[in-house]
Design a protein that fits this description.
With 360 residues, the chain is α/β, with parallel strands linked by helices. Helix content is 38%, strand content 18%. The chain binds alpha-L-rhamnopyranose (RAM).
Length: 360
């Protein structure tokens, strides 16, 4: 059933007026989202796994950064899935990976436009919360993908792979490449990015293992998912730490910029670089000996799963509670985990042996 006009009016009112005023004016017509034991803002009511998949829905994608090739691929995956499901796709977003205020205003715009669901990759865990909660109060389902908010600010989070898998494998690969010894640094995205920060915490934890006692993490630098800044930060790391043996860059923009810098410098092949990149960005650096191995998941599948989850939520097949299951088309069946997290799968490691099999 479509949302009532009055609820739609309230959504628009909430988006353009102070929240307090909107809450008073719309108090009787909005539905409070219920916080489940798992921690996510699971939508009220009971899931009906056999409910019909609704058509004609609109899902608004709000990536961390538009014109970042990673999100172009991810969102295209979402668009394709929505088309297959008979629903519509739209994309809004900022071109800077650190424009949190811009993301907030896009959430408000999508609420005003009365979309059925929002799929958002958050630049910051808390900054979008007020706006997203307002959207949920107006029956808009909220799915985060790639980079999460606090769990109570969305119905479900589509995680590219478990943070544990992503963080630990990057340290393990780097340790192997530098012979388990020497100084390393991390080149991250924005300082507030939920996903990179979660992975970095796990990397630090992995490094506590005594087998890495000769490896020292000397710095975490931030390139803000800006190519130029990431390039300069790489240069700065090597100037400040002349004994640096390796850089882990868990961002597609960062690893590409670092590879570009290293491949044109005397450090090529000597200072190791791994992290998360797209095969198309990294192919030439693997072939020219700058990079041995890096990893990623298929961003198109991440976008597809975000879209399919949004539609399953809007159709009432799931509410975001731990243990609920749903069918995600060709991707198979997924079960919602703790805190409303849905893991896409395991990351893939790319190297000279397999990189030509991938095109994204
Ligand atoms: C960048 C973004 C994104 C991250 C990938 C690996 O494109 O920071 O959030 O998941 O890298």
């Amino acid at each position: 059933m479509r949302k009532s006009t009055i609820r739609r009016t309230c959504a628009a009112l909430a988006a353009v007026t102070s929240l307090a005023l909107a809450a008073t004016a719309c108090g009787g017509t909005t539905k409070e989202d219920v916080k489940n034991e798992g921690g996510s803002a699971a939508a009220g009511g009971k899931a009906d796994p056999n409910a019909e998949t609704k058509k004609g829905l609109t899902v608004g994608f709000l990536p961390k950064q538009v014109n970042n090739p990673y999100f172009t691929v991810a969102d295209k995956g979402g668009e394709k899935a929505l088309k297959e499901l008979g629903s519509s796709y739209k994309e809004v977003g900022t071109s800077s990976g650190t424009d949190t205020a811009g993301q907030v205003s896009y959430v408000n715009t999508l609420t005003q436009q009365q979309v059925d669901a929002i799929a958002v990759s958050a630049q910051d865990p808390g900054a979008l919360c007020t706006a997203l909660k307002q959207a949920m109060k107006n029956d808009i389902k909220v799915v985060t993908y790639d980079s999460d908010t606090n769990p109570d600010c969305r119905n479900a989070f589509i995680s590219q792979a478990s943070a544990d898998d992503i963080g630990r494998t990057q340290v393990q690969q780097m340790a192997e490449q530098i012979g388990n010894k020497g100084e390393i640094a991390i080149l991250s995205a924005a300082q507030t990015a939920t996903n990179q920060n979660a992975w970095i915490e796990i990397m630090k934890d992995e490094l506590k293992d005594p087998k890495y006692k000769d490896i020292k993490l000397v710095k975490v630098a931030y390139g803000d998912d800006d190519a130029q800044k990431s390039f300069q930060q790489t240069q700065g790391l090597l100037q400040e730490h002349p004994n640096l043996k390796g850089i882990i860059s868990p961002t597609t923009v960062g690893i590409k910029a670092a590879a570009q810098y290293l491949s044109g410098s005397k450090y090529k092949g000597k200072v190791k670089l791994n992290g998360l990149g797209t095969p198309n960005d990294m192919r030439k650096y693997v072939k020219n000996g700058t990079v041995e191995a890096f990893e990623l998941w298929d961003p198109a599948k991440l976008g597809e799963l975000a879209a399919r989850t949004a539609v399953a939520l809007s159709s009432g097949q799931i509410t975001g509670k731990e243990g609920e299951t749903f069918k995600a088309g060709g991707l198979g069946e997924y079960t919602i985990g703790k805190d409303g997290v849905i893991d896409l799968g395991k990351p893939t490691v790319f190297n000279a042996g397999n990189i030509d099999e991938f095109d994204f």
